[in-house]
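User: Hi! I'm a student and our assignment asks us to look at how structure tokens line up with a sequence. Could you show me two examples?

Assistant: Happy to help. In each example below, the sequence comes first and the structure tokens follow. Example one:
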Amino acid sequence: MKEGRPEAFAEAYKRYQPSMARIARRLLDRSLAEDVAHEAWLAALQRIKGFEGRSTLQTWLCRITLNVAFNALRKSKLEVQLTPHSHDLMEEQNLDLAPAQSLPLSEPEMATHLARVRSRVDVQLKKMSRTNANALYLTGTSSMNGNQISEIFSISHSNLRVILHRARADLSKTISVN
């Protein structure tokens, strides 16, 4: 790709486009995600001469996709949606998402409560450092493992675990506050 060969681009596009689109779809709605994935390709092509090979091409492209997606999120000021993956992640962390009631919540009460939790999560993610928020997004919404995510951030896997621990602790405090 660096030499500008069209067949190299076609091969890279065929191989990496699905991953890039999947990352964008995890953060954005489907139509915006496709645009973001294409913008990421444009950004990658503009910067391909600067690709030093310190990471794999896939890691570099995924990082560009993440940056473009997060920029799109900031521009559109979309609310962060809790996906099934991030909800499972919160349950794993024993975060108290339900109000302290012994009776089951009615559907409207649950909807109201979940909206409040989503709002708190959204506010806290915006207050977090970009690295912490990005690490939580990727861990909670992508199918990538910790090693792949730490490679995207150019940090050790141990450092990623520390970042996630701190980010989850901050998030936990915010959610459990009534």
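Example two works the same way, sequence first and then tokens:
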Amino acid sequence: MIRGLYTSAMGMITQQKRQENVSNNLANIETNGFKKQEIMAKAFDQMIVKNRAKISENILSPIGKIHLGVMIDGVYTDFEQGPLEETSHSLDLAIQGGGFFTIELPNGQLAYTRDGSFQINENGQLITKQGYLVLDHNLQSISLENERVQIDKNGSITSDSGQKFILNIVNFQNGQDLHRLGENLYILEGGQTVPAENYLIKQGFLEKSNVNPLEELVKMIEITRSFESNQRVIQAMDETLGKAVNEVGRLR
């Protein structure tokens, strides 16, 4: 019975983590280029149960296997394409297909994003809305005189003064190697970039979040019910243990 308490408690912990993840997805419905995450759960490794009746003979006979509930296996990011929204702003860019814009952080580290809501800073450099530099295919900053630019489907930028740059659009052998940094940015951990293929750059558009609010609300209801079921199991076991301690074997 004590084992059952632990099993139900681990189930509640798992559902709590899932609830936190769903809440984060819902909170980012309006975040440009946001990719929803899923919590992956798995069963604890099986344990062999042995018969201790023959312990006096120093022999334990296996009588079966048990699981001790579930645990968090990891977090999966769904990189499915989000819907495109037209803004008509010349520096708003959306990637249709696979790929990420390349960004340079203040410490020189490379980061990646799907959020193409770009601006020009006081030095004439193309930046993200957080102020980080957007890089070209030579991993150099992009200097523009103004927002009057033409950007083709391959990411080639042409200013009204004739300057030309090519955006550095990359992809990854395994998207799950990307680690969320915050501010809608990713950094690569343990993998490598590959040239992006089969993509189009849409000028004057932004990619919206790929979170489906209806699906997330359904998950939230499912999680709540599962959490409550585990809670009721713990309450029932607690009451039974209480009776075993306080009433069974009582002398009257």
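Here is something you could point out in your write-up. The chain has a mean pLDDT of 88.
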